[in-house]
Amino acid sequence: MKRLFIIIVGLALLVSCAKTHRIPKADYQQKQGGEYITASWYGVPFHGRQTACGERYDMYGLTAAHKTMKFGTKLRVTNPDTNESVVVTITDRGPFIKGRDLDLSYGAAKKIGHLKKGVGRVWIKYLGRDMRYVKRVPFIKPGISAALTIQVGSFSEQENANRLKQGLEINYNNVYITTIQLEGKKFYRVRVGKFNSSDSAYSIAEKLADEGYTVFITSRD
User: Fold this and answer.
1) Vertex 65, ends 118 and 192: CA angle to 5°?
2) What domains are there in the chain, each with its CATH number?
3) Which pLDDT tens digit goes with each residue over 115-168?
4) Which residue in 211, 171, 175 sits closest to 191, CA to CA?
5) Edge-to-edge order in the sheet of strand 175-182
6) Residue 171, burial from CB neighbour count under 10 angstroms (0-12, 13-18, 19+)
């Protein structure tokens, strides 16, 4: 009876942890040979802003945003209407409009003749990943309390923070935004999780870093 009680308690703890820190889904699985998806593009309003991977968005570059693909993922994107193709790198999160799967940069959309159409079907083929986008988790600074969280991004534009939060919420629970004033300027910090041990925080931080996020573990406010 005692042994049965211990097993039940253990299972209850596992369920509790699962609710608090959702395990990320498996890597994006693409259909063999490629697949058709719906793509849009984004440009001027986001030019020069910080992307979810930490880079500055260059609307003239050959990049794209996807909700779950790891940063650094390389895709060949073909417009079936023009038969033009371009190779893009996933560096951002989005689009968060129903029915859209991929947000091309202005430069990529222009290269395949997708600007005028705006939203439409494209053919994508997975080419691999630029592993330079994989990040490492810094050591926890001495003196940080046991009440921990993971910071994934800090933005001066709230809209950028909101986009990152939406992307993270697909795979992670307890994603939230806090604000801070630095030298008279307001910043929006995107954070994940509420942890009571460094081991549990590191476990999630390492998954985020593998996806390409620049992260560090810090005290909860």
Assistant:
1) 140
2) 35-132 (2.40.40.10), 148-219 (3.30.70.1070)
3) 999 999 999 999 999 999 999 999 887 767 679 999 999 999 999 999 999 999
4) 175
5) 175-182, 185-195, 148-155, 216-219
6) middle
